[in-house]
Write a structure and sequence with these properties.
Chain lengths: 293, 244
């Protein structure tokens, strides 16, 4: 059997020029941002003896009088309208608990899902008892953020045919800060697979569904075997996503597609090799730059 | 004193350091992709790995949840191969439970837990090689991991052990000194404001010497904080250049 082994390599050191240390917009916890009292305290800051101080390591962002510090890496901070992919962790009275990479588990109320039988169906006590038949622990769903509670927990809804239980596919977890906010987070890629780019950093890759299957919506999941070619496309996309994430490239339909195209000359498993990753990402970035202008 | 001479007449210690000299500190942030935050830190021959998960929903006993702030859950452990003789250390032995508790108290003083009501922050620290000052190395490694996770803190928490020998305070003790009968003191400091997060001492020491010892510990902690600061800034720089 052919094995591919490699020795640990030296990390590339980013040269720190003198100006790099002077960059005023990078702060660490405890750094005083300003002692001017005219500013408002945003996320990632606190007031200590009337001085605005950073509490996380990251970039300072200033909007008018509001000062925030955005860390490089955090958990998902949901906003109303965000598309998320999550996993059911618990079934409770009238609600499901969903793990969405947020700081508290999100809530999906029975009253904010579409049950089979149309919009106007009444929810009876019987529905409460059969909740587990619709969604049970471990199921993956796509949903939209309906509201944010005062303690930061999210309330989700699936009141549209595009949301609901997810069937066969691959889940990729990456940092939420790498997902680019867009009008649509559901894409049917021309390479033969579809992708849901959840704002919470959970990305769902699945074979593009036929027209009828899509209309069934809701809680029906197809268990038909997926063809080998579809599975290969999905695996390639998954490795491409990991490559883009490793090089901190923003994810959206165009960047994913370009990355897929640049990876075609390599076999699927080779994409994960660091040198191939670098090459593919470089090509992708070049294409993106060309497209921009 | 029997056996070892901890401080020579010329003012050098067993490993050739001066009294106030720290051991070499090397660190790296973001060593694991799976965790929310992680860091690896070496201080001389003591090596520690810290991992942070959270803030997340409370797992297990829901009743532990606090309605106004996050709970911090610390777990300290030592690798079987970390000391001179191999020893299996099951979880929950008395020494590591005590150490976990100290770490918890230290980080409750530094992390802004009131921003995350009803959630939990897990800090797991493992000693890979033990050569004295385990508590302080764990605190320093965990600080970097918490910063890597993007969890808000008042300031860095830096810790250092100091000892008192022949009317002199020795900074950053190694194992030979710790076990050589020095009265040692561990101190965790928020360096910018000079607030003390935790002081721990279980040896005997004359009251008159306590102030000088604490003073020496604070200076040592500030030295450590400078090194940590450099590591964090370097990490930040690398992270933000990649993004452009």
């Amino acid at each position: 059997m052919a094995l591919d082994m490699r020795l640990p390599t030296v990390r590339k050191t980013v040269s720190l020029s003198a100006s790099a240390f002077d960059r005023k917009d990078l702060v660490v916890p405890g750094d005083i941002i300003t002692s001017d009292t005219g500013f408002m305290r945003g996320h990632g800051t606190y007031v200590d003896e009337e001085k605005l101080t950073a509490s996380v390591a990251g970039e300072v962002q200033r909007v008018d009088k509001l000062i925030c510090v955005r860390p490089l890496k955090t958990r998902f901070n949901g906003e109303v309208g965000d598309v998320v992919v999550g996993r059911i962790t618990e079934v409770q009275q009238k609600r499901w608990k969903v793990e969405t990479n947020s700081r508290l588990d999100s809530v999906l109320l029975l009253s904010s899902v579409n049950l089979p039988g149309g919009e106007l169906r009444r929810r009876s006590a019987e529905d409460e008892l059969t909740m587990r038949e619709y969604l049970q622990e471990g199921d993956l769903i796509s949903a939209e953020v309906q509201s944010v509670f005062s303690d930061g927990a999210l309330s989700l809804h699936t009141r549209s045919l595009k949301y609901g239980k997810l069937g066969q596919g691959v889940l990729v977890q990456i940092s939420p800060s790498l997902i680019k906010r867009q009008k649509s987070h559901f894409h049917n890629l021309p390479c033969g697979a579809s992708v849901i780019l959840g704002n919470n950093g959970f990305v769902w890759l699945y074979p593009t569904l036929g027209q009828q299957e899509e209309e069934a919506g809701g809680f029906y999941t197809s268990l038909e075997p997926v063809s080998l070619s579809d599975r290969e496309v999905i695996s390639r996309l998954r490795n491409c996503l990991l490559a883009l994430a490793a090089h901190k490239v923003l994810l959206y339909d165009t960047s994913v597609l370009y990355c897929y195209e640049s990876s075609l000359q390599h076999s699927v498993k080779d994409i994960l090799k660091p040198e191939v990753m670098e090459e593919i990402v470089m090509l992708t970035q070049q294409k993106l730059l060309e497209q921009e202008g | 004193m029997a056996g070892l001479e901890l401080l020579s007449d010329q003012g050098y210690r067993l490993d050739g350091r001066k009294a106030t000299e720290l051991r070499k500190v090397q660190a790296r942030m973001g060593v694991f992709a799976q965790a929310d935050g992680s860091a690896y830190l070496e201080q001389g021959n003591t090596k520690a790995l810290a991992v942070v998960y959270g803030p997340h929903e409370i797992r297990g006993a829901r009743s532990r949840a606090l309605h106004d702030r996050a709970i911090i859950n610390c777990q300290y452990s030592m690798a079987t191969f970390s000391t001179a003789e191999r020893k299996r250390r099951p979880h929950g032995d008395r020494k590591s439970t005590e150490m976990s508790l100290h770490l918890k108290q230290t980080f409750e003083a530094a992390v802004l837990t009131q921003l995350y009501p009803r959630s939990q922050i897990d800090i797991y620290v493992k000693i890979l090689q033990s050569d004295g000052g385990n508590y302080s190395v764990c605190v320093n490694a965990a600080t970097l991991a918490v910063i890597d996770a993007g969890i808000p803190m008042r300031d860095y928490v830096c810790a250092c052990t100091v000892g008192f020998v022949d009317e002199t305070s020795l900074a950053d003790l190694c194992y030979a000194e710790e076990s050589g009968g020095v009265s040692s003191l561990a101190l965790a400091l928020l360096p910018r404001g000079g607030q003390i997060a935790l002081v721990q001492m279980d040896a005997r020491l004359h009251q008159d010497h306590l102030d000088t010892l604490i003073e020496a510990a604070m200076t040592a902690c500030k030295g450590v904080s400078k090194v940590l600061d450099q590591v964090v800034r370097q990490h930040l720089q690398e992270g933000s250049t990649l993004r452009e």
